[in-house]
Amino acid sequence: MNSRTFDCTTESNVILDNNNNNYKLKLKRTTSMEEKKNLLSNIKMGTREWARREINCIKGCRMYCLYCYAKGIAKHYKRCTEETWKNMEINSRAVDKKYSKVRKKGSQPYDIMFPTSHNIILDEPYFSACTIVLKKLLEADNSVLVTVKPSLKVVKKLCKLFQDYKETMTYRFTIGSTSSRILKILEINAPTFEERLESLQYATVNGFNTSISIEPLLDSTPFKLIERLEPYLSPLNYERDIGTIWIGLLKTQYIPIALRTGEIKEFIKFIKPRLKFEHVYQYYEKLYNHPRIKWKESIIKMMILNDVKTQGITS
Fold first, then answer.
1. In this predicted model, what pLDDT tens digit does every residue of 7-39 receive, in sequence order?
2. How far lies 293's CA from each of 34, 42, 109, 199, 226, in Å?
3. Sequence-distant (≥ 6) Cβ neighbours of residue 36 within 8 angstroms
4. I need a labelling partner for 186 at 20 to 30 A (CA). Which of 20, 129, 215, 270 fits?
5. DSSP string across the chain
6. Main-chain dihedrals φ then ψ at residue 121, nearest 5 degrees
7. 160-199, pLDDT tens digit by residue?
8. Domain 51-275 is of which CATH architecture?
């Protein structure tokens, strides 16, 4: 199989490069390694980029995303195997406990990100476990970022159940490719692109705050994704992180070596050149002043290490 067949559009087929080394966003001076280390040490990582606290109520995840960091960590500490990760188990303690308003200080726009290591699915008793926890979090007057790979039936039920919390609840839908084929390779049991797009439309039309995580980016560039998703997002509120689009890179180290065969092997071959600075910089520069775009730490780190401007950090 030719790895180029993964592309869903001609636009995403290319590997971008800057043969003239004309980097318009380069800093005027080169920073020392010590300066870089200081900048990197102050970057918020993972869930801390979005919220002050994260909550989960299920161990394991049926979506079975091959690159999942939570699965990788659980395997490292021998809490699961590659196969048993798909066997979801409700954390009764998390469901039964009382939740209060998050008091922890921070610059993040949300008190809580829920969930972070599993999806919300329609099957019982998992759906009820998630909605019980979410209701408790919202009733405690927390602002909650609901982060899922959305199925339309789940989003419809959540919107119906939580219509009184539109001001304090924001959806962040993970959509990393316009190609359902690519999504199926890496996110084996997750919804198609078409269903995720329909879920976004539904939530926004019904008055809920919506935003997008293009992490990991599984297409060559994010341009086509942005074009398809932006018309259906909430009006932009950059400070509250509503209507925003976050972009981050695939971390291939979490994809098990034993699974790197067939289409998975070909995809990794396809994506690796597109994770290099020379390629990433080209769309980073074009989107630098896009009002909706925010960059995840994987890209911010890359730019700092290559002496490129990063909004709010280096200039």
1. 544 344 555 555 556 789 999 888 898 988 888
2. 29, 21, 16, 20, 9
3. 304, 305
4. 129
5. --GGGG-SSSGGG-----TT---TTB-SSPPPHHHHHHHHHTS--GGGGTEEEE---EES-TT-BTT-HHHHHHHHTTS--TTGGGS-EE-HHHHHS---------S-SEEEEE-SSS---SSTTHHHHHHHHHHHHHHTT--EEEEE---HHHHHHHHHHTGGGTTTEEEEEE---S-HHHHHHHBTTSPPHHHHHHHHHHHHHTT-EEEEEE-S--SS-SHHHHHHHGGGSPPPBTTTTBS-EEE----GGGS-GGG-SHHHHHHHHHHGGGGSHHHHHHHHHHHTT-TTEEE-HHHHHHHHHTTB-BTTTB-
6. -115, 165
7. 999 999 999 999 999 999 999 999 999 999 999 999 999 9
8. Alpha-Beta Barrel (3.20)
The amino acid sitting at 109 is P
Tokens of 270: 């396809």
Joined tokens for residue 100 = 């209060």
Pair of tokens at residue 298: 């994987």
Structure tokens at 51: 């919220």
Query: And the tokens for 143?
Result: 């602002």
